[in-house]
Amino acid sequence: MKRLAWFLLAMAPLVAVPAAFTAVLATGSPVLRTTIPIEARARGHCTWHCHNHGCSHTPHLPRALAGDEGLYGATIAGLKAAGRAVVPDKPHVGYGVVNLAVFCVAWPGIMYALYLVALSQRRKIRALRRGAS
Q1: In the record, which residues are listed under signal peptide (predicted)?
Q2: Domains identified in the chain, total number
C-alpha cells in the first residue's frame, strides 16, 4: 500500500499539470495559437499589447529582476544568443525554439527531478525514523 502511495505522489505532477493546463484552455483560449493575440492597451493592467509593444505600466518587481539590465534582460539576451546559434538564418525562430526548450522542457524537467529527489529523501528519512524508534 505504501508503494502505491509513493507512486501516486510521484505521478501527481504529471497528471495535475496537464489537467490544469487543459482546464485553463477549456475556459475559452484556443488549444493551439497560430499568432500572438492582439489586444488594446489597458490603463490599469498589462495585456497582450504590453507583450507586443512594450509595457509602460509601473513595474511591481525591482529593476534587478524585471528590468532590461537585470535578470529578465539577461535571460532574454541569453535566449536570443542561443536562438542565433541554433537557427542562424532565422534568429526569431531560434529564440522561440530555445525559449520552449528551456521553459517548457528543461526547467519543468529539472523541477520534477528535484521533486522526485525530495520524495526519495522523505522516504529514507521515514525509514530511518522507524528504525531508530
Answers
A1: 1-22
A2: 1
